[in-house]
C-alpha cells in the first residue's frame, strides 16, 4: 500500500468513514479479465500462437518446467544473484545515503559522484564489469548491486532530509544529542520513503539479473528466456516472463510486510 493510500486509510478511520483500502476482489477480477481476454484472443487465431500463446499453454509449460526440474535449476541461481547483489547495493545505499543526509562534508564528497554515475544506464556498465571481474558470478552480482544502490541512496537521503523540523527542534530543546535525534526522529520519519526505494531496487535487480544472464550465463531466468526466444519457443519464453512477474510480486509483498513490522517496532 502506498504512503498516500495509507494516509487516506488512517484519516478515514479517524473520521469514521468507510474503509478505503483497495478491494482484493477488484484486483483479482481485473487480473482474471485480462487472462480470459488473452486466452480468447489467442484461441480465436487473431495472432499466430507462435507470437501469442494462450495463458493455459503457458501454465502447462510452467508445469513441465517444474516437473523436469528445469525451472528450479534456472530460478535458483537468479535468486541467489539477486539476493546477494540487492543486499550489497541496498546496504551501501542506506549507509552512504545516511552519511550524505546528516553530514555536510560527506554530502560534498558523495553527492557529486552519485550525480555523475546515476544517469549512466547500469546495463551499459556490464561489459566493463565483465572486463574487470570476468564472466563468472562476480560480474552479475556487481551490476545488480550497482543498480540497487541508487534507488536506496536517493530514497534514504530524501527521507532523512524530509524529517519534521519541529520535531527535531523539540527533541533538541529536551536535550537530545545529534545521534539521538537521528535515531529517534529522522530515521523513523524516513522509513516509508526508504522502503519505497527498496521496492524500486528490487525491480531494478530483476531487470539487471535478466540482462546480465542474457549476456554471460548458462543458467538463470534470463538465459532461459533468451534460449527459448532463439528457438522460437514462445510458450517457454512467456513462462519465464511469468516467473519474473511472480518474483516481482512476491518481493513487493515481502517488503511491504517487513515495512509494517519495522514501522510498528519503532512506533
Task: Report on the architecture of this protein.
There is one protein chain. The longest helix has 38 residues, at 178-215. The chain has helices spanning 3-15, 24-43, 55-68, 70-102, 104-117, 126-133, 137-161, 165-173, 178-215, 221-230, 234-266. The model is unreliable at 1-20 (pLDDT under 50). α10 packs antiparallel against α11. The protein has 2 domains: 1-47; 54-266, MetI-like fold. The chain is mainly alpha-helical and 267 residues long. It starts with a helix and ends with a helix.
Put simply, the count of helices is 11
Query: CA-to-CA gap between the ends?
Result: 18 Å
Question: CATH superfamily of the largest domain, please?
Answer: MetI-like
Report the C-alpha radius of gyration, rounded. Answer: 22 Å
* Shape designation: globular
- Poorly predicted tracts of residues: 1-20
**CATH class membership of the largest domain:** Mainly Alpha
Q: What is the ordering of alpha helices and beta strands? A: HHHHHHHHHHH
Number of domains: 2
Instruction: Based on the coordinates given, report the CATH architecture of the largest domain.
Output: Orthogonal Bundle
Strand count: 0
Mean pLDDT: 84
Estimate the helix proportion, in percent.
over 70%
Largest sheet: none
**Content of β-strand:** under 5%
What structural category do the secondary elements indicate? mainly alpha
- By CATH, the topology of the largest domain is MetI-like fold
